[in-house]
Amino acid sequence: MDFSLLLSVASVFAFAEGKDTPHAIPKKVPQVDLKVIENSFGHLVNGLKGIELWRREILTNAQENPKYKENAPLVESFQLLNEIDSYLIKARKYYQSINTLIHSDENSLDAKQTVATISKLRERLIHIKDTVQERGKAFKPATNVPQDSELHLLKAAFDATAAECLAIEKDLRDMTKNSPYKKYLKDIKPL
Fold first, then answer.
1. Distance separating alpha carbons of residues 25 and 9, to the nearest angstrom
2. Average pLDDT over residues 85-99
């Protein structure tokens, strides 16, 4: 996953805090049993779905709020967040497909179909990422935005998504490095 998109959420929410600190991925990760990682990965992916539903509900409510509709830069921020949200939905589906692949027999039809699905999702993710990055170049953060709980909650939802994605990526790296799952994931390029 390209975390520059998640970090670009910080620029959208520049009005909510004085300064955002990008999330850091630790350089040294402790060794964990692969079965624990496998279970953790599945739970994290399922948790990401719950966060997605919460994030989408908050984003929809914010977009429908009449006082926000009057602020053109904020409306533009919501449009960019919608595009980032669509990227995150595809990323969750990508992770779910990888989770399905991990639990499949490598010679099964299900495994072969899942590899094809992962490849298609990856292409869509790259396209969405390029679109968002292009729009992000011209993006100017909203100013004179009301400092209310709804916008802070929206920021918290995107922050929770970033944290969950970082945990998923960590587990994915651990699973594919020196593990029996490497053979299932050998043809899948990282995002």
1. 17
2. 89
